[in-house]
Amino acid sequence: MLERCPSFAAKTRQSVHLYGKHLVGSGDYLEQRIDGVHRFRVEVKMQIGEDLRSLLHVCDGRYLWRCESYQGKGSAERVDLARVARALEGRTEPLSPDQLQWHTRLGGLSDLLRDLRDHFAFTAVAATTLADQTPVVRLEGSWRPERLASVMQSETLQPKPGRHAGPSLAEHVPDRVVLFLGRDDLFPFRVEYRRRSPSLLPGDAEDRVTVAMDLFEVSFNPMVNPSRFVFTPGNLEHSDETDRFLERLGVVKRR
To answer: Which residues contact 55 (CB under 8 A, 6 or more apart)?
Structure first.
């Protein structure tokens, strides 16, 4: 649905319950697709104690910027997308699936949904409504075995309590994902990352939402000023991360 919509805008709300802390955030999301060029702007502000952490991801089709500011300090990273395209076009060997689809992995809502599809198998489906009475379809996804095996290899595993001791995933890794799509337009209004925690009662477990994101006040096909997708760092400390991006794609070797 998102790929077929020329543009949309939404407010966002985030909630995090991890490691004994509760964090809330809010922001704005803007996306536009014109003449094959994908542009997006994601802004999030999250209160951490007495300080405000700000995150900005913005892509104008030529550059991808990731910026962060916290406790009076800020930094920005840039990826030169034209240089990435030239590097891939100049390769003589066949491109891998990740290399062929690199332009779809830059960030934004579409990228998030692809990651969910690639990592989780969605099977449980039910009709429901959100708190604001938006009619949605609830989809619950569990880990794809090969993806879970990869995560378990990369994460620091903790011993499980109880008689059947064994490794368990770190607290920030979810057991499953719940996705709420609009019944009429299949727009992703809410994403929940869930985790079952052991209980003191035998055979019981606490089911809790560790991370959630809501999109609301959604506007489809609004008039968008192209300048919203342009970013200039000004005096902000910034670096070019194009080489690292190419390394992750396997286009150039790590130094």
So the answer is: 27, 42, 43, 44, 45, 46, 66, 67, 68
CB burial of 54-69 (b: ≥16 within 10 Å; e: otherwise) equals: ebbbbbbbebbbbbbb
- Of 87, 109, 31, give the one whose Cα is nearest residue 248: 87
Three-state SS letters, 164-214: CCCEECCCCCCCEEEEEEECCCCCEEEEEEEEEEECCCCCCEEEEEEEEEE
Interval 46-94: pLDDT, tens: 988 888 899 999 999 999 999 998 777 889 999 999 999 999 888 878 8
User: Among 33, 64, 40, which residue's Cα sits nearest to residue 246?
Assistant: 64
Structure tokens at 171: 């607290």
Q: How many other β-carbons are positioned within 10 Å of the β-carbon of residue 35?
A: 5
As assigned by CATH, the class of the 2-249 domain is mainly beta
> Where are the chain's structural domains?
2-249
